[in-house]
Structure prediction request, 231 residues.
Amino acid sequence: MPLDTPVWTAVIPLRAGSKGLPGKNVRPLAGRPLYRHALDQALAAGASRVLITTDLPEVLDAALPPEVECVRRPPELAGDTVPMAPVLVHALQQAGVQGTVVLLQATSPLRTPADIRAAVDLFATGAHGLVMSVTEADRGVLKWGRLEGSRFVPLSSPEHCFANRQSLPPVVRPNGAVYVFDAARLIATGSLAADSVGVVGMPPERSHDIDNLNDFEQAERLLARPALEHP
Prediction:
């Protein structure tokens, strides 16, 4: 491995409970369990280590590649209202992970190894405390606001509320596919938030997130397209 190649650990969180689509993380997608897409993408992108944090018996007992290890997630961290940060902190501490970490959620199977590498490379510059993947969003949200009693408070510049949509600046949203951060910083702060967040853009067709059966079936259709074939 070249000396300038970043060394990093991929973390894939999986839990048994899913209200939108029970068993989705191990449900076959294009011939592989859903979680295997994230695992295979991590290895193809160059992860030196892949850590799965899960309460799924079929994953804990599965025959996995030698670079992959599982951390058993305790019940108190497996509920559907548990934030991601404490789940990650537990896994990183249990496995003694240090250095650069890449969070890959199984529900974003249309990312590519190139998306992951681009995010890792950007994080390696040291310019950002967090790097995440994003996709283009409706710029009309710049017209929105929140309420303080009966008072409208713009989410952005007040001038945006009265501008033509076409004249508004581009807007992006996190797509949940890739997050890159430092293990020690997350453990110390308990948060993924950072003062400077770098972004790697992904097209809408690869920013698909799976929550329910319709999402799953759409992902299968998208994966069937040759341009979206994954390793």
